[in-house]
Amino acid sequence: MTNTQVTHIQIDNYGPWTVTPEPRREVDLQTLQSRLFADLSQLFGNRDGYVFFSRFDNMIAVSNGLDLDDHRLIQESVGNRYPVTMSLSVATGTSPVQALGDATSQLQEEGSAQDKHRREILKGRTIDDEFRTADDVQIAHFDVNDATGKYTDQLNEFDTFIHIEQGYAELMRYMRQAHDSLCFFVGGDNVIGVCPDLDEADYQDAVDHVHEAVDVDLKVGVGRGRTAQSAGMDAKHALEDCRAAGTDVELLF
Amino acid sequence: MTNTQVTHIQIDNYGPWTVTPEPRREVDLQTLQSRLFADLSQLFGNRDGYVFFSRFDNMIAVSNGLDLDDHRLIQESVGNRYPVTMSLSVATGTSPVQALGDATSQLQEEGSAQDKHRREILKGRTIDDEFRTADDVQIAHFDVNDATGKYTDQLNEFDTFIHIEQGYAELMRYMRQAHDSLCFFVGGDNVIGVCPDLDEADYQDAVDHVHEAVDVDLKVGVGRGRTAQSAGMDAKHALEDCRAAGTDVELLF
Amino acid sequence: MTNTQVTHIQIDNYGPWTVTPEPRREVDLQTLQSRLFADLSQLFGNRDGYVFFSRFDNMIAVSNGLDLDDHRLIQESVGNRYPVTMSLSVATGTSPVQALGDATSQLQEEGSAQDKHRREILKGRTIDDEFRTADDVQIAHFDVNDATGKYTDQLNEFDTFIHIEQGYAELMRYMRQAHDSLCFFVGGDNVIGVCPDLDEADYQDAVDHVHEAVDVDLKVGVGRGRTAQSAGMDAKHALEDCRAAGTDVELLF
Amino acid sequence: MTNTQVTHIQIDNYGPWTVTPEPRREVDLQTLQSRLFADLSQLFGNRDGYVFFSRFDNMIAVSNGLDLDDHRLIQESVGNRYPVTMSLSVATGTSPVQALGDATSQLQEEGSAQDKHRREILKGRTIDDEFRTADDVQIAHFDVNDATGKYTDQLNEFDTFIHIEQGYAELMRYMRQAHDSLCFFVGGDNVIGVCPDLDEADYQDAVDHVHEAVDVDLKVGVGRGRTAQSAGMDAKHALEDCRAAGTDVELLF
């Protein structure tokens, strides 16, 4: 059984800030957002968590192994170094979607994302060390078969991007609806999924579905671990196994 | 008539690097990618260009105002500070899609994105100063109507993300096919389009199409300028006009 | 008794790299160095350590609380994200100077700082958890009395800088020779000292010496802790006590 | 004749901010300061200027080639991305010390560095393009003879640092008093000097003085140019000439 700990990260009142008193230069907003994500990647990552940029003003982390003090330190460090602050809400569960749902609800109870008085909320519960297991996190690492040969080296870059993006849009929706998973594009032709206790047939089903729906061919390696980092590294090795063996799905557990 | 100068940015042989000799830690890759994008945002942005992260290993810039020496400096600066290098290819045209197509083709002629001997290519032509005009760049800034009230404050964050993402996937595909435009998600509920000489009816058509196809309600402000920065800033002000007037489309030119 | 764990951080073969094949642009080197230091500040700091930039190509960390695995992760993360690699050597002792001496010697045994084949060395021993105590680290935080009123708001900025710098040069030398301490300028008018088990009279002696030698008036707050972070935060509070009480030396233990 | 354009950069009301409401974590301050400097290095550097970190809360730039609009953009970009703002004051002159003196005075007239109502000042005059020449900037690049062989590979790192630091402290003071120059430590064993129209004998005098005063042996390459970047790159090549020829001083003009 998985027990995923999910953190919903929300920049406080960000939309209004970007246009106050006048719209701010887009390149500065892009720089701010991507550096904040880079910092969070390191702050969570150095404690073996994963962060996904999703919408940048709202990010989602798999935070197994971080307690509330770790979250508080991350929140304080960002507050010390950025012109914006962020709220954090943590929840856990066997279904990543359910855990995220709980985390988001806790945050919504405190007020709107654009409430100017709601700042630096820190809520939720983390998994006590004694209840953590080596099966808590299941990570799937998808990529597109021969993306370089079929797309990058053939099409104009935007058409390549459209193919990858349509594949991702279909996968994220299907995995959420059919398999209670959270899938995130992470660059190139790669998508990382945070999954409940799925088996090989579930992953094959997802690969088949995307092939049929939008004609994009995926493969996927899957790992399990106590943290996102260990599960994710196993998933990467499993994906290398797919590449070596020419298979669609490899599970390294 | 627009005359968009587009730069295709490609990290050299990036895929193989990420798994050599072993798969590298995902959090480090995420940090590397997002910081490289942040740096490029500043490097192009301080010369009034825009960069979009698209796939991170391949990025797309609107580079009106930058000549080849500027590109060379950016390439050298990245080479001095990152463990990877990048190739740059520039082309221009009345259609952003066509310009990008030319830029990508020039790069593909030099070898595969995963050719380990093809490094730091710099190709293409920029627009001579004497031919640059105040109509060269047309930028459209889209956002989702009441995204905070309808999605962020109501749904779990992943379902909000799915709505935004499906709206974006539909918009990017439609604008490319019907209107020769390049649209990029830039965070939150915002999409920026790089467009040829479109008029109000074209934008209304796109807004209507997305509403019908995936039930996501957009509005859009449009600006024109000599550079992405000036066109983009006008687009932001036009979007504020939409917000104030409750309209779907505002053109500030 | 203090038991300071000191890490000597050395960029591998950095000097030659900066001029190969041609001298690299100074602004890129400055950016690289200061960002690497910023990253190390976070990487050590998020484990409650302190890093000092000293010469930038060689940096010194107080690393109580980090074991060799933590060091290995930091080394790998930098190797994944920078065009240069670094070697790390750790040693411990009641005297910070002696600990650093041991750390440096271990590194020198492996070859020259400019040996192109000596890369990513990781050597030394850290303090086992069972032997760590709340007195292990003693941190002193010095600043210049009324630096803003006497210097910044009166002199040209370089002459202010000369005053601060001469005060620092004298303090660093004296504290090393007379008190086995490592003192580092950390910006503004602030110097942080990593000290053995010194008492109030020792600090008063240092303040008096700098006053007599170069006519710069210092005050100092001192803290103790299990880590650099806890000792350093107490030192900051002690310095606030100096400010409030008008005293030269305050010890918060 | 040189005509150096100097910009005094001052973080507004920084000291009080670092301790409000409580002292902020030192590692976050170090990260903030060094990243701000890295950003300024790029922002000035991409317009061929140089920035020196000096005290970090006050920095000094050689800004020939940047006009007030460039300064305004840099100020705005920092304000958009950091929790602090900065003031900029520019002045020019044949003596870098005098130019900096004027820049600092202009800033002091607007209020104290710790005046909480004095924010984002932008003052001064830049050199009109028609008056700029290829002799405007003279840059000297000093380093320590065989620093790796004599210090880094022999002494403990702090004692090496003390040697370098004492050499720098003496050089900066002497060059300011005897030769109206601004010298800055830039890492490793390197010091960069911003000089008026000095000749070979002046540089030999400085090298001799430091040798006699503190027994540190320097060499120096000197370049001239329209911008700091071109003068500085020539200085680096001149320093390579010293290395090849075994000389103390080389001028590349």
From TrEMBL, chains A, B, C, D:
Q: From the UniProt record, list the reaction(s) this protein catalyses.
A: GTP + 3 H2O = 2-amino-5-formylamino-6-(5-phospho-D-ribosylamino)pyrimidin-4(3H)-one + 2 phosphate + 2 H(+)
Q: List the GO molecular function terms.
A: GTP binding; GTP cyclohydrolase IIa activity
Its EC number(s): 3.5.4.29
- What is one Pfam family matched by this protein? GCH_III
Which terms are listed as keywords in the entry?
GTP-binding, Hydrolase, Nucleotide-binding
The enzyme class is hydrolase
Q: Give the family from UniProt.
A: Belongs to the archaeal-type GTP cyclohydrolase family.
- Functional note: Catalyzes the formation of 2-amino-5-formylamino-6-ribofuranosylamino-4(3H)-pyrimidinone ribonucleotide monophosphate and inorganic phosphate from GTP. Also has an independent pyrophosphate phosphohydrolase activity.
Q: What's this protein's name? A: GTP cyclohydrolase III
Organism of origin is: Halorientalis brevis
